[in-house]
Amino acid sequence: MTYFFVILFIALIAYVIYFTVVRARTVVNSPYNQRQDSFAETVVRGDIVDRNGNVLATTTVGDDGSETRSYPYGNVFSHVVGYSDSDLGNTGLESVENFELLTSNAFFLEKLQNQFTDSKNRGDTVVTTLDAELQQASYDALGDNRGAVVVMEASTGKILSMVSKPDYNPNTILSDWSTLNSDEDNSPLLNRATQGSYAPGSTFKIVTTLAFMRQNSNYGNYTYDCIGEITTGDTTIHCFDGTAHGYEDLRSSIANSCNSSFANIGTLLDIDGYRDTAEDLLFNSDLPSVLGYTKSSFALTSDSGEAEIMMTAMGQGKTTVSPYHMALITQAIANGGTLMEPYLVDSVTNYTGTEIRRNVPKSYRRLMTSDEAAQLKEYMAAVVEEGTGSVLSGASYSAAGKTGTAEYSMSDGEKTHSWFMGFTNVDNPELVISVITEGSDGSASGKAVSIARQILDSYYD
Amino acid sequence: MVNIVVQISKYIIIILMAAYTFSCFSIFTRNYEDEERRVLIRQNVLMFLLQFAAFGAMYLAADDIRIMFIYAALAVTLLAVILLYNLIYPNVSRLVVNNMCMLINAGMIMITRLSSDNASPYGSAVRQMIFVVLGIVFGLTVPVLIRKLKVLENWTYIYAGVGGAALLIVAVFAVSSGGAKLSFDLGPISIQPSEFVKILFVFFVASSLKKSVEFKNIVVTTAVAAGHVLILVLSTDLGAALIFFVVYLIMLYVATRQPLYALAGIAAGVLAAVIGYHLFSHIQVRVQAWQDPFAAYSGGGYQLAQSLFAIGTGSWFGTGLFQGQPDMIPVAETDFIFSAITEEMGVIYALCLILICVSCYVMFLNIAMELRDPFYKLIALGLGTCYIFQVFLQIGGVTKFIPSTGVTLPLVSYGGSSLLSTMIMFGIIQGLYIIREDEEEERIERKRERELRNEPRKTNRKNTAKTRPRFEEVPKQRTRRKQRVR
Of A235, B192, B251, B339, whose CA is between 20 and 30 Å from A212? Predict the structure, then answer.
């Protein structure tokens, strides 16, 4: 009894220390914290640079003491680096790293001198994992398409490139604001990479395949005879362009991206188990992300109708996902089932470059067993070798992946999103890539995989 | 330039605070009275130096002469407290007096800082100062009352009646004013009765359990105690309800030594908590705010989020006085004063503050352990529990360790009722300390008589064994054991 309160207080003190050491930084970083704004009174906002030291954002101080935030790459990094404006607030890394940028770890004698002369200290530099060259290549490859690209280092989870289009110029954000903010057709301020919510199309067949593998240990013996369409009840599902794929096993079903075969697999699945698999892959759940994101949704329940099940199994239906999430799933497959926690900030240094803090790669969670990952890897390699991803074959690097075409109806007719998710250097995966282009007029098949090829070629050349 | 002085004073304050806190515990290891006295005097010196550094820095930073007036008033008052206690009650625990002054001092520094933004600048600092003086008058009167009034233990149902009635009035009042109003106004001052009823409640339980620990009496006592708790829950004063509950449980357990009662009590408490959670929406709001104050930012999480921002921004060394923004925390002067202190004076300073509270509690327990009369023993234990549990609820609440219950930090938070009741509590315990010294003296006296009469010691030892305090052992710390020879 006597020790009861002593233990309570030891726990309380331990907690306060834990909070100060571990939690405080994250808490203080919260966008709700208006205290940060006052830091700007004594600190000149620090720089954001890429992994090679290329400056992505910097503040110049005029002779009259006025401060201007500028972004040398203009539109290229608009969503991921974001903008910082005293009236509009901060977005992207400018928001996430606001605290670091407005904290100065300059040499203490210099800070002391600044105290005496009443000058401002220079804030710390945020060194990102981004690669300006690869970012530029992704930006160029996406061209005029609406959509997004995410490129990650497979073994570490470092995000090398993240592009979303349409974009904006952070240098002129204040004057462009009313136009940008009211443009609801294009929503250029939205970071489609993490916040876009799309039907996954055929890329979702990877999830369906994993569920099928888990529910049928003899999945290797699966066969299906595709006649170009499948009908159950009053629902008929067609293969792309009505192609009859003929006799298929699971491997060729994936390589051909055969809708009929996957609709058939859907009817064979236990739906609760299917949902468990999807949720293991982080559908309907939080994602590890420092940037704001939209949760992905998998809507099937054991009450769902046959039609919805078949549609979902081939990637239509009510399922939604972000390009970022697709990159995470691909990364886990490439890493033998373990998802490495993705990150954007490699280190924080003071403005002269002395390191203050470094992030190290850490695993987030195991999403599947290594056997399952190896099997999916093999299927994805088949997609490139002999299937719908053949655009990527014959390159100087090996690749594996899954294409997708998601259909949706708009007032001006049927439109399609084009998807690609994949990774390079199949035996020892190097880069993970996820690409989406929005709303083409139906002829978009293979658009995303071509963009992926362009980006990867530029990286490996 | 001013900023540099403020920054330097910040580190000086932390060093002084740490040295003081260290002496709070090291004193228990001192073996000789003059060594002990040296430590106690050093504590006083540390406190006044700290006070000077803090108020000096504030004066420089805010450039307002009123700060110096408050400083002068506080310094004189605290000096008077220390001297008066020395003069009137040479036998009280000086450590408790020092700690009380230190906590009041820490509170006054922050209240002065925060009240610079008041509608009438420094209004609440001045009001708090008046209550400190009032509290000292009570604090100096109470010990003698406790010592002289031998009938205190017979007033069992007077305590329960007066306390219960006061709570009931507040409950009715609170219900009619839409809840959450826990005080009523008497002219210019508003009184929060639950702060004072705590003391009556402890007296009630102690006197009732002293009379008898028969099952029947325990049922009756428990029913009355449950009545208190229920009224508090109905008037939405959950923090106080929880304190009453825990205090009763611990007093009951110590008086009866029946683990069964304790277990039954804990089970009832858990059951009540679950029912309460589903019954009252404001409890659910609190719990949600605790789980994720940022997700519930606009739905009750705002206060806690601001509190965490303050603590996180302050970090180990704080921002320095007048260099942070503790005014952004709602009710920073009362419920969230700990966060405000942490922001500007740092986590190290704040942890020291916690340890000083713990030091008080250890001293209270020591006193309780050495008292022989079960009535006094239970009172020391009950009031000590009351004090330390409130500290725990408060600091745990604002740091997101536990869901917040909206209680004040005794002696530190702004608020007359809280300050006065705590100073009375400290006064009562000081009174008990004197009683303990009397008991000690009596024992020595008897022993000497016995020796004169050459009585065999055997029988006596047997008696001691029987009446030995039925307490668990607290860590072996020394209370003042003065061998007075007359």
Answer: A235
Give CA–CA dist B67/B78, Å, rounded: 16
> Which single residue is written with the structure tokens 């992926």?
A452
In which region does residue B411 sit, left (phi positive, over 0), alpha (psi from -120 to 50) or beta (all else)? left
The secondary structure of residue B120, as a DSSP letter, is S
Interface mutation vs chain B, best among A16, A98, A111, most B CBs within 10 Å: A16
- Give the residue on B whose Cα is nearest the Cα of A116: B1
Q: What is the pLDDT of residues A128-186, one digit of tens each?
A: 999 999 999 999 999 888 899 999 999 999 999 999 989 999 999 888 888 888 887 88
What are the sequence ranges of the domains in chain B? 2-440
Q: Taking CB atoms and an 8 Å cutoff, what residues of chain A touch B313? A: 28, 33, 35
Domains of chain A, each with CATH number or no CATH: 44-125 (3.90.1310.10), 135-347+363-460 (3.40.710.10)
- Per residue in B214-256, pLDDT (tens digit) is 777 778 778 888 888 888 777 777 888 888 888 888 888 888 8
CA pair distance A174, B161, nearest whole angstrom? 68
Q: How far is CA A238 from the centre of its chain?
A: 30
Q: Rounded to whole angstroms, how far apart are CA atoms B265 and B258? A: 11
Residue of A nearest to B389 (CA): A5
Amino acid at A201: G
Positive or negative torsion for Cα B409, B410, B412, B418: positive
CB atoms within 10 A of CB A162: 29
Return the structure tokens found at B392. Answer: 């725990």
